[in-house]
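User: Structure with NAP, tokens only please.
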Amino acid sequence: MPTPLAPERADLPLRVAIVGFGRVGQAVTRRLLAQPRLTTGARPWRVVALADSHGCLLDPGGIDLAGALREKQRCGRLPRPLEEFEDGWSDEPPELLLELARSAPDTAEPGLRWISRALEHGSDVVTSDKSPIARRGRELRRLAARTGAELRCSTTVGGFVPVLPALRDGGGGAEVHRLTAIVNGTCQYVLNRVDSGTPFRVAVEEACERGLAERPPSWDLLGFDSAFKGAILHQWLFDSELAPEAVRREPLDELRLARRARAAGEGRRVAALLEVRPDAVELRLRPVSRGGPWDVTGAENVFCVETRHAGSVWLRGTGAGPAATASGVLADALALPRSRTESRPNAGRAGGWLDSPPGPVERSGGVPA
Ligand SMILES: NC(=O)c1ccc[n+]([C@@H]2O[C@H](COP(=O)([O-])OP(=O)(O)OC[C@H]3O[C@@H](n4cnc5c(N)ncnc54)[C@H](OP(=O)(O)O)[C@@H]3O)[C@@H](O)[C@H]2O)c1
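Assistant:
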């Protein structure tokens, strides 16, 4: 177990590094500026390193965050060469890494490299980056367990909706056997607009204009975003190594939606529901009752967790957006254990994930439509 900091070090600044200075990274930075007294235990946070894809800023005395935001707005990049950020780690790794980059879906880089490196050093990691967790989450949490570091990734699924922390704290004992969810804001937006009479193509264009979807929006509409979230949820619930490619996806396109909407009939509409079970993860366009729990008219995420011993639990709330995601990142970071050692090699402590996942159970019951 990590030993507590010596009393004379207990109020020294906590060295924090941030990788990824896009919408979420900048939203976190603005929150740090608005809350300058943020502490872990008695230790005030000090951001000593900050990187985007082209450059970085380093300052052991604390980076001028307002200046960094201005620089990014003005030049689109941070001024120092990125190699300096890499070199800085060998000298003095941060104690907490906020990994907020957008990693490649296939290789999970650069996030995978940064997260692994931090955990190897015994540094805690909070990430919002789906690919490294969906692809290698199990391995990363084992690495964290070996070095006594913590790995938190609540915002990779559900944004600010604390579905992963809820499952970690309560899922094991109750034996979750199915989770059904609306997890993609773009699909939800398009479904809502089409339901209220907007042509499909116009609805997709609006989603792009509002910054809900990337251009092209196929990542969301073809179900890849949901597949990555489904893989993370499956890992989390069943300690699996399910790849995002193993998630069955029903793409959202104009013809399919028209067919599904006709079949749904009176008093029902169509929702894109992700279902996570021990034997499979599926994303399907399903008919749901108007006015029912899945009739979501805003950009909310909704989760229904069905357990064997404790009935169902529902969670709903803001599933995306820089401000909500930044709040989730900070919530993860502030929930980290309060006493940290200076070096924690091979401490052999369990990571922040579900330690004893429930075994596979039979399907039973149903989610109200
Ligand atoms: N936005 C949301 O609502 C939301 C919600 C939940 C999760 N997330 C996840 O959170 C992460 C950040 O989201 P975002 O919306 O902030 O994305 P974004 O605006 O695209 O920003 C991504 C950031 O990662 C940086 N980056 C890319 N490659 C890098 C590298 N090799 N080294 C260092 N930095 C690198 C980019 O650098 P440049 O600035 O130089 O391009 C950019 O600063 C993503 O993984 C996303 O999937 C986002």
